[in-house]
Specification:
327 residues, alpha+beta
Amino acid sequence: MVVLAALNKLVSLGNARALAGVFVLALASGCASWLPQTHELRQALPDGAPESVELTAVPFFPQDEYQCGPAALATVLAANGVKITPQELVPEVYLPERKGSLQVEMLAAARRHGLVSYQLAPRYGDVLREIAAGNPVVLLQNFGLRDGWHYAVAIGYDYDKGKLILRSGETERSQLPFGVNELVWSRSGYWAMVVSPPGRIVPTAQEERWVSALAAFERVADPGAARTAYGAALERWPQSVPALIGLANAHHRLKELPQAEAALRRAEKVAPDSVIVLNNLAQTLSDQGKDAEALPVIERAAQLGGPFSGTVEQTRREILEKLRKKG
């Protein structure tokens, strides 16, 4: 973006250091509320994170005016092995009337290219942890000017110097003090995202948020990729009922019905009163011709009631009709 070029010029002239000095003075004088995450970060590095990291192999795509979204997304996709250019992503994420890209489109486009997209929790430490693990992080910043929204990709940091290293705008290696970055990043609610192949879980993933991301991925992904993604999630969270349901769905789409049944049996042990689990298990049993075994399962689901009672009743009628035909 145009405003970013101006900021980079300010950084090169040393004005960013002056701004950083103002922020440090504010923190020292007890005004940590101005930049709470920078203040917290100054207390200690996240556990296991090294003092400095730079992902030099992350590609660089200079952005066209207003098209920082496609450039930032192409950066993280290409870093994960997807052969893509910003120009190819423009129709997927760029909205001309807004002169930019919405976060939902950024997340969705990554899924369409076979990667799991994950919105990080709004914590500075999580950004550093992801970078330390080799994952470039897309940040949404706002420089407070007209059309000031901007996507940049954090590829490194130097903790001692208090600086974040970014692929940003037309600058391949932009450096921002932690405080300056927090100022412009906080205006987006600390929005950040990473992408990952289906079989790998990023280090800051939280169970509910990650499985939710997989559910969105499953809607557009190849069922084999969804099966891989849910399988990896279950290695970390073996009792996750939503992940077990997702794995069963992927097996079902692949016509792997015994495996789908096995996943749902596991889910039933964890959540015996889940109507969704019972309905899907009954359906899977019926699809294998085990209607007599499916009937008591769907009857249990019907007794529980709830918002899915219509779906349960439909499954029940189909099972009863199949049993009637069998005589």
